[in-house]
Amino acid sequence: MDALFDRHQPTLAAALQAVQERGYWSAYPEIPSGKIYGETAKDDGLASYNARLGKRFDMPGHPATTRLGAEISPFGPTLGITYPAADARTLIAASRAAAPLWAAAPVETRVGICLEILARLNRISFEIANAVMHTTGQAFAMAFQAGGPHAQDRGLEAVAYAFSEMTRTPGQAVWTKPQGRAEPIVLEKHWRIVPRGVSLVIGCQTFPTWNSYPGLFASLATGNTVIVKPHPGAILPLAITVSVIRQVLTEEGFDANIALLAADASGAEITCDLVLNDAVSIIDYTGSNSFGDWVRRHAGDAQIYTEEAGVNSIAVAATDDFTGMCANIAFSLSLYSGQMCTAPQNIYVPRSGIKTNHGLKSFDEVAVGIVAAIDALLADTARAAGICGAIANPATMTRIEAARGLGKIIRDSAPINTGDQRTATPLVLVVDSDNTNAHEEERFGPIAFIVGVADAADGIEKAATLAHRKGAITAALYDTDEGRVDAAVDAFAKAGVNLSINLTGGIFVNQSAAFSDFHVTGANPAGSASLTDTAFVANRFRTVMWRRPKAPDRITA
Amino acid sequence: MDALFDRHQPTLAAALQAVQERGYWSAYPEIPSGKIYGETAKDDGLASYNARLGKRFDMPGHPATTRLGAEISPFGPTLGITYPAADARTLIAASRAAAPLWAAAPVETRVGICLEILARLNRISFEIANAVMHTTGQAFAMAFQAGGPHAQDRGLEAVAYAFSEMTRTPGQAVWTKPQGRAEPIVLEKHWRIVPRGVSLVIGCQTFPTWNSYPGLFASLATGNTVIVKPHPGAILPLAITVSVIRQVLTEEGFDANIALLAADASGAEITCDLVLNDAVSIIDYTGSNSFGDWVRRHAGDAQIYTEEAGVNSIAVAATDDFTGMCANIAFSLSLYSGQMCTAPQNIYVPRSGIKTNHGLKSFDEVAVGIVAAIDALLADTARAAGICGAIANPATMTRIEAARGLGKIIRDSAPINTGDQRTATPLVLVVDSDNTNAHEEERFGPIAFIVGVADAADGIEKAATLAHRKGAITAALYDTDEGRVDAAVDAFAKAGVNLSINLTGGIFVNQSAAFSDFHVTGANPAGSASLTDTAFVANRFRTVMWRRPKAPDRITA
Question: Of B502, B522, B523, which has the smallest distance from its Cβ to A548's Cβ?
Answer without folding.
Answer: B502
